[in-house]
Design a protein that fits this description.
Strand order of the largest sheet: 2-1-3-4-5
Helix content: 25-40%
CATH class of the largest domain: Alpha Beta
CATH topology of the largest domain: Rossmann fold
Number of domains: 2
Radius of gyration: 22 Å
CATH superfamily of the largest domain: Response regulator
Order of helices and strands: EHEHEHEHEHEHEEE
Distance between the termini: 25 Å
Shape: elongated
Length: about 200
């Protein structure tokens, strides 16, 4: 089963929201919607999209405030935000980009197809950056708590149970965190037998 890219579409105009939701769905995106900034924040508390398509001029909470909320929350800050707005003045664009937007498009001069291409480009760049980072380390059995870790998790002094080759610690960065957090597993470089 193919995982579809999740887009949170934040737009207060029902007509524009319908146009973009239909266009995104046609392109096989999974789309959630919000009609104002408060709804967007509520949706973000329940699900994590791959990208946010964000209008700026909305009632209750504007897009700038939503952008600030997203970029200052460690759980959300890595989600790229593409601003699409009727405002196209240089100071508006600069403000959105300085708050952390990954891109900015003006509704009046950009077709839905072009917005979708921009979304695909941003998603591709985000995934590429995340896939590059990958660290493999050797753990010394006599270093700090290495012996205790081996005993507690039955890692057999970090030897592969199949071929007895020294296993390596494979670390993958967690980009949803603000600081250096990793997920890790022990792998055998010879037979790729995993020990998690």
């Amino acid at each position: 089963m193919i995982t579809r890219t999740k887009v949170l579409l934040v737009e207060d105009s029902p007509a524009i929201q319908a146009i973009y939701k239909n266009a995104l769905t046609f392109e096989q995106f999974q789309v959630s919607t919000a009609s104002n900034g408060m709804e967007a924040v509520k949706v973000l508390s329940q699900e994590k999209p791959d990208i946010i398509l964000l209008d700026l001029m909305m009632p209750i909470m504007d897009g700038y405030k939503v952008l600030q909320v997203v970029k200052t929350d460690p759980k959300l800050s890595k989600i790229p935000v593409l601003v699409f707005s009727a405002k196209g003045q240089p100071e508006e664009v600069e403000k959105a980009l300085s708050l952390g937007a990954a891109g900015y498009v003006v509704k009046a001069t950009t077709k839905p197809k072009e917005v979708i291409e921009k979304i695909k480009t941003i998603i591709s760049q985000t995934h590429s950056a995340q896939e590059v980072a990958h660290y493999v380390l050797e753990v010394r059995v006599d270093a700090h708590d290495a012996g205790k870790l081996s005993d507690d998790f039955k890692l057999g002094n970090y030897r592969c149970p199949v071929c007895q080759t020294t296993m390596l610690l494979d670390l993958i960065p967690d980009f949803s965190q603000e600081t250096a957090w990793f997920s890790g597993k022990f792998v055998c470089p010879k037979c790729t037998h995993l020990k998690a």
